Amino acid sequence: MYIHLTDAAAQRLTQYAREQNDRFRLVYDAEGCGCAVSGVVALWLTNAPENDERQAETNVPGLPIMYLQRHEVFFEERLRLDYNAERRAFRLSSDGQIYGNGIDVIDRRAALRTPADAPR
Prior knowledge:
Layout: E1 2-5, H1 7-16, E2 23-29, E3 40-46, E4 53-55, E5 57-58, E6 65-68, E7 78-84, E8 89-93, E9 98-103, E10 105-107
C-alpha cells in the first residue's frame, strides 16, 4: 500500500507524534457497527505494534503509517491523505473513491499506558 501525504497532512501528523515509538495506524474500524463490512476509516496514534501490522510506503520519510494486513482488503493500493485546517479533519481518497472527509486522529496511546506511565 502506498499513501501520498500532502504537505498539510504531513505537517499536521508531525504535530501529533512526539515520542520515538509513536506511529499512525490506518484502520477500518467496524467496532460497534454491527457488521464487519460496515465500518469507518480511522487514523489511530499508537505506540504498540500488532502482529499483522504492515508499514505503508509514503512520500514522507520518518512518519510511519501502519495498517493491519486484515484491513488491506478495504483499501485501494494507492491512497492520498490530505488535511483541511478549516475543518480540522483529514481526507483519505484514491482515484476511485473518497474513504472519508472528516477523519480525525484518535490517540490510542493512553489505553496502552499503565497507571505508572500516566501523566501527572
